[in-house]
Structure prediction request, 204 residues.
Amino acid sequence: HGGMRQRAMTVAAIACLALQLAACAGHPPNPADPWQGFNRPVFGFNEGVDRHALRPVAMGWKTITNDPVRDSVAKFFYNAAFPSRFVSNVGQADGQQALIEVVRFTVNTTVGIVGFFDPATHWGIARRDEDVGQMFGRWGVPPGPYLVLPLLGPSNPRDAVGGVFDSLLSPFMWISFVTGVPTYGAPGLINVVNARARADERIE
Prediction:
């Protein structure tokens, strides 16, 4: 009986190996997406979360707000991300843009009521998106393979690491640390829901 059991296990192992080889033969590795085996299920998971949770909440938010309110909320969170843009510009030795970021932040935090409005742009001080991932790129760090992150979506290893630093530079992180009052990620959730509501037509 022991010999028969061992032979059966061997046959099963060979069958599994044959199935894996057949699967590999049917789906040759894509050089542009070498982590496809990880990315596909994560993409499916993200779609499920969006379909069953994020989009319904975002549609509820869209129902109780209007475009100007959602635009102002987006401007508030963009203004709050000033530390990340400032550090990125300093890290890229772009002193002029770093100064522009300081001026924009000062104007929009005061005249623009903590960033809900953007008078700096109306005054000709244009915004420019920057983050730590872009700083790493300027330093010559390669992006690495295409990567789909759970809940966060498409990225690459360089930008994923940069995103961690962006999060650590967030003032909401500082507020929670200094005051000891946990925010439980509420600001980030509001930002994501608002962004999802604003992008719904493009996503559909």
In short: Residues 7-26 have pLDDT under 50 and may be disordered. Strands lie at 147-149, 153-155. Residues 36-64 form the longest helix (29 residues).
